[in-house]
């Protein structure tokens, strides 16, 4: 059921929730593109259930210009994180994106932030 127009006028998050649902469904069932990453350098001992990984990736994402617009990443950061981690099964892996094929896609940039966060957390700590 589509919300009545006056509801969307009063609460723009309804429209954003709908947009997220579309992006999520297309990502899972008919992605518009796949983003390729390398697992080289990501430690296999990292606990992907550690909430600090998502928190760090989100902090990094929030430094990017594309994060200034509230959207699917903000609504469903945990979903996008799970999609990325589910794809992380081989040295080279592809992560689906159901938003767009644009190089400036916020979801693509969030995936890149997750990747960088995992690499940073895998790097040997120096004293």
Describe the protein.
The structure is a single chain. The chain has 127 residues and is mainly alpha-helical. It has one domain. The longest helix is centred in the N-terminal third of the chain and has 18 residues. It is globular and about 50 Å long.
Tags for this model:
127 residues, mainly alpha, 6 helices
What is the fold's blueprint, element by element?
Elements (H helix, E strand, L loop, with lengths): L4 H6 L1 H18 L3 E6 L12 H11 L10 H4 L1 H11 L4 E6 L8 H17 L5
Antiparallel strand pairs: 1-2
Global morphology: globular
**Biggest sheet features:** 2 strands, antiparallel
Q: What proportion of the residues form beta strands (DSSP E)?
A: 5-15%
Please give the radius of gyration in angstroms: 16 Å
Number of domains as seen in the coordinates: 1
What strand line-up does the widest sheet have? 1-2
N-to-C terminal Cα separation, in Å? 57 Å
Overall strand count: 2
User: Helical stretch count?
Assistant: 6
Low-confidence stretches: none
Q: Mean pLDDT, rounded to whole units?
A: 90
Secondary-structure element string: HHEHHHEH
Regarding quaternary structure, how should these chains be classified? single chain
Helix content: 40-55%
Overall structural class, as computed from helix and strand content, comes to: mainly alpha
Nutshell version of this structure?
With 127 residues, the protein is mainly alpha-helical. It is built from six helices and two strands, in the order ααβαααβα.
